[in-house]
Amino acid sequence: MAEKAIVLIDTSSWIEALRSTGNRDVRERVFKLMIDGRAFWCDMVAVELWNGARGDYEKQKLAELEKEITCLQTTPAVWAAARKLAKKCRQVGQTVPSADLVITACALVHNAGIEHYDAHIDVILKIHTTPKNKGA
After folding, report:
1. How many domains in the chain?
2. Residue 46 backbone dihedrals phi, psi, to 5 degrees
3. How many CA atoms lie within 13 A of 117 on its CB side?
4. Could you tell me if residue 134 is inside a domain?
């Protein structure tokens, strides 16, 4: 039986999933990934979530998630991939948040899918998968 692919869940999807008013479809996708044991995050996602945590309830939920969700390592290869993605984005005139570059690079380096609700990640992935023009 083949292993199910792992999925790095971006901050944007965690926020939607954890908010009572968040997008229902995103919440369902995140919870399904958790139930299936396929939900992962990285240090950059954890930092973003902790940075935005308000009140004891949110901090408690994050502490619980830290015990349950596996953290993909932000290795030197991830940082190199993030720099490469940044260069590719700038070459086509796109400026995207550094955190999104690192999170996307982490997913790519670890061969993980990426669950997100963030237009910047769509931009990064599109640029990443666009073949170079001939002669460029």
Report:
1. 1
2. -60, -40
3. 16
4. no
What's the rounded Cα separation, in Å, for the pair 7 and 74?
15
CATH number of domain containing 57: 3.40.50.1010
The residue segments making up the domain with residue 24 are: 7-129
Contact 9, 106 (CB under 8 A): no
Question: Does some domain include residue 1?
Answer: no
Each residue's pLDDT tens digit, 2-11: 567 999 999 9
- Specify the pTM: 0.91
Task: Return the sign of the alpha-carbon dihedral for residues 26, 28, 34, 36.
Answer: negative
> What are 29-45's pLDDT values in tens digits?
999 999 999 999 999 99
Q: Which among 109, 114, 69 has a CA at the least distance from the CA of 85?
A: 109
Question: How crowded is residue 38: how many other Cβ atoms within 10 Å of its Cβ?
Answer: 19
Sheet holding 70-72, edge to edge: 70-72, 39-42, 7-9, 113-115
Instruction: Tally DSSP H helices, then E strands, for the chain.
Output: 7, 4
